[in-house]
Amino acid sequence: MIEIQPMVSGEVAQVRAILIAGLTERWGRYDAGFNPDIEAFPESYRDALTLVARDVTGPVGTGTLKFSGQGQAEIVRMSVAHTHRQRGIGGDILRALLEAAQSRGYQSVVLETTSAWVSAVNFYLSHGFRKTHERGDDTFFEYVWPG
Question: Is residue 127 part of a domain?
Fold first, then answer.
């Protein structure tokens, strides 16, 4: 059984490892110079909400919700451990992040991903996000609650 809760301090190294492993898988290597937020994790997201999906072995996925003062939150650094993909965990994390944003009164949530990561693009589209634009190698999305 998977539970999704805010990250606790004892999980920082495991969550960071999940993020680095995901980037290594996507890019073929991890370059710390391109990821200063992960190098300073979790301090770089001190005012954000980082959720962790856990099973009996510990953290298996994560996502972070950054808050702004303009009614819009941003999802960053979502990743699920390779061994736990295709089980709905990513969708569960995403829904929990959206619920957190909505409960705090945000009108929309934005995110971006690399355009070449077709599985990520399709994942966000299948969860109700709409593509807003592309810039360089990135695709940008927005989720607005129905109604």
Answer: no
Domain assignment present for residue 117? The answer is no
How many DSSP H helices and E strands does the chain contain? 4, 7
Give the span between the Cα atoms of 59 and 62, in whole angstroms: 8
pLDDT digits (tens, 9 = 90+) for 128-139: 999 999 999 999
In a domain, 112, yes or no: no
Whether pTM > 0.90 for this model: the answer is: yes
Q: Please indicate, yes or no, if residue 123 is contained in any of the structural domains.
A: no
Q: Total structural domains in the chain?
A: 1
Sheet of 72-80, strands arranged across? 3-6, 49-55, 58-66, 72-80, 108-114, 138-144, 130-135
**How confident is the model over 86-108, as pLDDT tens digits?**
899 999 999 999 999 999 999 99
- Domain with 72, as residue range(s), is 3-105
The full DSSP string for 88-116 is SHHHHHHHHHHHHHHHTT-SEEEEEEETT
Mean pLDDT throughout 132-147? 94
Report the CATH number that the domain containing residue 63 is assigned in CATH. Answer: 3.40.630.30
